[in-house]
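Before we proceed, please read the two lines closing this message. Report back on whether the structure tokens fit the sequence:
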Amino acid sequence: MAKTTEAVVIGGGVMGASILYNLALRGVQGPVLLERDTLGSGSTGRSSGFIRMHYSTAVNTELALKSYPYFINFNEIVGGEVSFVKTGYLVIAPPESIGGLEHNVSIQKSVGVDTDIISVREARELVPGFVLKEDEGFAWEPGSGHADPSGTAIAYSSRARELGAYVALESPALDVETSGGRVVAVKTEKERYETPIAVVATGPWSPRFLPKLGLDLPLEATRHEVFLLKRPPDPVPAHPGVADLSNLTYFRQEGSDLTLLGNGNVEDVVDPDNYNPRPGMDHLQDLWVRLTKRVPAMESAEFFTGFAGLYTSTPDLHPIVDKVDGVEGLYVCTGFSGHGFKLAPAVGIVMSELILDGEAKTVDITPLRISRFAEGDLNPITYKFRVIA
């Protein structure tokens, strides 16, 4: 059965939902979102939910900065609840990474982020009970925090539907049809959507889906584990979000008495349809030991729960946000390497600009072009710590 629409977005994570909303907001008639399962069932539903702007490049920093007002005022700007919690964000760097820390903060400040290098004394005031060394470096973002990734995807899609969009769940896209060098349709098992525009936002399924379209891009689906520990309340009060480069951990508070804990190491490449979603206890023990080096009182915390999710990784840990040369109407938005959620509001905007205006205006996304891999012009990575590349 054939249906006609002005645009199809493939992938119902927070990125696809943001793109759908922004297309509908710009007047695209009846845009369609195709999701293989349920909204946020891929990487979005298992995101750690950090909202921060500490990055090693201007493009990611600007995307995060432009996204930030949406998280703190989502109901007023878009409509819906994303449960933003302001905690601040502290980056702790070992001596060999202090130069990189200072470089990154200079980039962030140059584009308007409220952040600064602080002293060990100031850091100790922010995180009493933490072990902080005199030779470490510290960067502080007071306005950062965390929010609900799945709630954000649902809020975007709900508002998009109010604007005339259609969301098809349990409807995986099978192919994008082209003719004469342009998109003509997107096919599912039951439907054929005739359209001049197709946006591929398929997350960890991108390495499998894009080759069907003749696109050979360096993308990998990688597994990562996150744990929730119940804090001993007296010695470990509520704390900010932390990226601990010295111990390769990141952690933040969750609710009133939990700490979410993950690692900053590269994970295993997996099949997104066949990977273990449960955390491993050996990995938990390793991470827990690393956490106690920073917060000794967490040795008496209790394991609460955990899960494993997926990143979609590129060699430079930066996303691909671009049109496809040679196929009019085909766009790719994937490869966010573990930090897509916090960029989603701005990415939805720049994708709508790219599609409707011919170029992104809110942020210069040239560094995220597809051709950078063939050109050998990759984005720099300051730390060997993937979640803040």
